[in-house]
């Protein structure tokens, strides 16, 4: 029996409706949520993502500020812009689109963003809050993956979850969120000799390697939930994920498509973190 599709567009639509209602109520009280997105350089894919983020903000009733800079912007100038946005009361969230040009140190840039406005959840403090179970902003992609898993109605307690990939933005925070939901968690990565040994025992697999066909049907336990974080292009230039969707959909119980799975949810959780940031400010006013 083929797997059920986990529809990230439909779930996003539902959540964005709830976010828009929270934004409207904040706006009424004079605290319209505001997100600043900074993009440096002219990477076409990055510009597409940023355009989608700005549009999502506007659709949710946020104030949206997009700042575009040429690739030769100095690190000092970027840090200065972040300092100004940290002090701007109309802005509740600051996102600096990655990757940055090579002459700019991304760690320095991320740490310059006020923790109260770190809606990407990329800073060392946000990472520490996640690790220790404190309130803070969760990185949007793994946070969105958790919502997609929750939407299946399957309780993670005691389940075996396997994360493939160990990046600071996806794999590592993903593993911590699954652990917080009481799953038994395994992290596989490029030095794992045989990933299938682990994934064949998994009730949930999250693939986040940035490589096509990281996960194939023979590596999946029948009835597993498969979440595909990858955004790759196949030989025909078509968007595809890290998993062999056509093969795995015959084995898994639930699977996310690419596009239309994790991608839209990443943007939705960015909106969620930003509305949350604005609510925290409003509560203190
Ligand atoms: N500071 C920072 N924060 C980020 O969150 C961040 C970043 N830098 N740099 C790049 C990655 C990538 N990312 C995506 C967001 C949405 C889609 C998305 O909406 N994807 C659509 C398809 C889009 C298309 O057609 O290309 C989908 O999967 O359905 C994809 C990728 C956020 N990132
Ligand atoms: Mg890896």
UniProtKB/TrEMBL annotation:
A Pfam entry, by short name: THF_DHG_CYH
InterPro entries (alphabetical): Aminoacid_DH-like_N_sf, NAD(P)-bd_dom_sf, THF_DH/CycHdrlase, THF_DH/CycHdrlase_cat_dom, THF_DH/CycHdrlase_CS, THF_DH/CycHdrlase_NAD-bd_dom
GO terms for cellular component: cytosol
Alphabetically ordered keywords of this record: Amino-acid biosynthesis, Histidine biosynthesis, Hydrolase, Methionine biosynthesis, Multifunctional enzyme, NADP, One-carbon metabolism, Oxidoreductase, Purine biosynthesis
GO molecular function: methenyltetrahydrofolate cyclohydrolase activity; methylenetetrahydrofolate dehydrogenase (NADP+) activity
This protein's pathway: One-carbon metabolism; tetrahydrofolate interconversion
Coiled coil: none
Function: Catalyzes the oxidation of 5,10-methylenetetrahydrofolate to 5,10-methenyltetrahydrofolate and then the hydrolysis of 5,10-methenyltetrahydrofolate to 10-formyltetrahydrofolate.
Quaternary structure annotation from Swiss-Prot or TrEMBL: Homodimer.
Protein name (database record): Bifunctional protein FolD
Taxonomic classification: Bacteria, Pseudomonadati, Pseudomonadota, Betaproteobacteria, Burkholderiales
Gene name per UniProt: folD
């Amino acid at each position: 029996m083929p797997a059920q599709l986990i529809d990230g567009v439909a779930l996003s639509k539902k959540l964005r409706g709830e976010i828009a209602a929270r934004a409207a109520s904040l706006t009424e009280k004079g605290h319209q949520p505001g997100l600043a997105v900074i993009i440096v350089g002219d990477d076409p894919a990055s510009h597409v993502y940023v355009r989608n983020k700005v549009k999502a903000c506007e659709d949710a009733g946020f104030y949206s500020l997009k700042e575009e800079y040429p690739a030769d912007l100095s690190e000092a100038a970027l840090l200065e812009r972040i300092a100004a946005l940290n002090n701007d009361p109309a802005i509740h969230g600051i996102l600096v689109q990655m990757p940055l040009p090579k002459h700019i140190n991304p760690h320095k840039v991320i740490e310059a963003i006020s923790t109260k406005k770190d809606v990407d959840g990329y800073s060392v403090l946000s990472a520490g809050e996640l690790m220790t179970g404190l309130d803070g902003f969760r990185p949007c992609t793994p946070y969105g993956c958790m919502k997609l898993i929750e939407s299946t109605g399957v309780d993670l307690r005691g389940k075996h979850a396997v994360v493939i990939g160990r990046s600071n933005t996806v794999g590592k925070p993903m593993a911590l969120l699954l652990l917080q939901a009481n799953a038994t968690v395994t992290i596989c990565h490029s030095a794992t000799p045989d990933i299938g040994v682990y994934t064949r025992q998994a009730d949930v697999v999250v693939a986040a390697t940035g490589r096509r066909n990281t996960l194939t049907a023979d590596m999946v336990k029948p009835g597993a939930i498969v979440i595909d974080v990858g955004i790759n292009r196949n030989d025909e230039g078509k968007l595809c994920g890290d998993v062999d969707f056509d093969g795995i959909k015959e084995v898994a119980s639930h699977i996310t498509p690419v596009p239309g799975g994790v991608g839209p949810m990443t943007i939705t959780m960015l909106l969620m973190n930003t509305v949350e940031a604005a609510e925290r400010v409003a509560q203190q006013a």
